[in-house]
Design brief:
- The chain is mainly α and 58 residues long.
- The chain has one domain.
- The protein contains 2 helices and no strands.
- The chain is elongated, with a radius of gyration of 14 Å.
- Keywords: Membrane, Transmembrane, Transmembrane helix.
């Protein structure tokens, strides 16, 4: 069961990364969007690590 949850989490994370890459591509080369996207990525990575910690503790 635990393995399945981790697997689903990995797929979800990859889909989020893909979505952000698509957004980058659509938005073009505007610095504001690049900065916002970078902040989003950092926030996602932090929440991902927190999620992994919680899953490991259970």
């Amino acid at each position: 069961m635990k393995q399945k949850i981790v697997w689903l989490g990995n797929i979800f994370f990859l889909l989020l990364l893909l979505a952000i890459l698509i957004v980058f591509f659509i938005m073009g080369r505007q610095p504001v969007h690049i900065a916002a996207g970078t902040l989003m990525l950092l926030a996602m990575l932090l929440s991902w690590h927190r999620f992994r910690k919680v899953m490991r503790n259970k």
